[in-house]
Structures are given as structure tokens and as C-alpha cells.
Write a structure and sequence with these properties.
Helix content: 25-40%
Oligomer: single chain
Strand content: under 5%
Radius of gyration: 18 Å
Low-confidence stretches: 1-33, 38-51
Amino acid sequence: MTIPIEQPDFAAVEVEEKKVSDQTGEENELVLDGGFVVPPTNAFGHTFRDYDVNSDRRDGVEEFYRINHINQSVDFVKRMREEYGKLDKVEMSIWECCELLNEVVDESDPDLDEPQIEHLLQTAEAIRKDYPDEGWLHLTALIHDLGKVLHLPAFGELPQWAVVGDTCPVGCAFDESIVHHQHFKENPDYNNPAYNTKYGIYSEGCGLDNVLMSWGHDDYMYLVAKENKSTLPSAGLFIIRYHSFYALHRAGAYKHLMNEEDTENLKWLKIFNKYDLYSKSKVCIDVEKVKPYYLCLIEKYFPAKLRW
């Protein structure tokens, strides 16, 4: 089945420690920066998230964002959430989905061109090394990009601009910190007075749960986890939905829409983002060696089979 679609520096963490309770009610105190060493360059020898560097992927990445910014409108997002919120495409386990992701390479990513399963394990294992007792965070890292299966035929084979890339709210003004912001001028919402003001259809402190985000793998995986009754803490679900929301966690935009819970969870997202972004490399993880550990975490926080 194909879903028809019309085609037209890392911010320093400000606090030093944070307490989070898991589903058992146990509270853990953490130092936010676990000592992860940031490499000077990405897998191509360039600085991370440099969309202007003269690399082989630059022109393709900008074209990706041009199409993305033109099409990510309120109407489009509502249509995608209605369609994919049914969770009627596939039934499978978390690990089966991890294996499916071997077929996906993210065209929006200027830092890596490896299959996605490598990135998931690189991120999870880097976090596991620095935060060995935070299983929920390890699992969140493993699954955060699973929504990229939207690009595969069984899920409607959505084009990459509707699956990957940075995300942002729709229904209010597009912040200028968003990468390749200039291409929003062709978006149908750009000149719509209902959608092009600071608050648009939202209100001060309404909470990000009440905000429509541009459609892609983040929001899809968030819906999958939530509707399948995952017991991940709210910080885990927050990371899944907003890990590509760089305008927020790098530039500090859209904070006027956040509530108190969002503010607390954002601290965890900033920790996660460091590993998500900077752990990308050509170094492969021994999948069979780490698989038993992650299967135990999956069993703890998810049902055996999920609706997708």
C-alpha cells in the first residue's frame, strides 16, 4: 500500500544533576554529563550538522528540506496523524522493527550514511557506558528512530521528507532558527493569519503534548509507544517525540509553549541529544553481543507484539 501525497552549537546543559523516577518509583540521582567525549568531526570529516559545508551530501540535504518545508502544513500533519494513528499497518516486536531499519538510510542527515540500526546501537551503547543504571534511557536510545520504517513499503512508503529531518511545530510561526528556514515561504501556512503568528492556534504554556509537530518518524514512534501502553517514563516519551526538534533544544525557540513537565523533560532531552548527534561514526557495534541486554529491556517496557 502506498499513501498518496501531493508533491509540490550543541547547547550546554544548564543544570548539573537531575532526578528521575522509573515505573517502580525508584529515584536515581545523575550527573548530566557522564563524560562522553565529543569527536571533532563526523563520519565524513566535517563538523556536525554543518548544512553549508561543501560536501557530497550538501545539495541533496538542502533539496530534502526545501520539499519538507513546503509540504509540512497543519492539514498534512492532521491527515498523517489520523491515518497512522490507526496503528493498522503491521504487528511486530520492537526488535523485529530494529532489524527492519537496516533497510533505511536517512537522506536528511549530513553526518552519516550508514544503515539506521548502526546509529541506534551507537547511541544506546554510548549512553549505557556513561549511565549504566538507566535502562529506560538505553532503551529510549535504541528505539528513538524506529519510526523511520514509515519509508518502507509495508508502512505506505512515505517519501523521506515525510519521515526524517528536523521537526518543528505547525500551526504557529516557523522560527528562523530552523535549518533552511527560507523554504517555508512556499508553505501554504506561511501567509495564513491563523497560523503565522508567535502563538498561532496555541496559548502560553499550553504544553507540547497539545502542539502539532511536523510529521515524521518522531511523532509516529511516539504514537506507537503511547498507544501500545509502553511503561517508559514521560522523559523517554518526550525524547522520542522531540529528539529532532532542534529549534527547541539547540536554539531555545518555542519555549513559550512549554509547561512545567516539558521543562523537566527537556533536561533529559539535552543529555540524550549529545549522544544522538555525536555518537555517529563508522565504528560498528557487535549486534549479537548486545542483543540479549536490549531484549530484556524491551520485555520490561513493552508488550511482546506491538501494533504499528
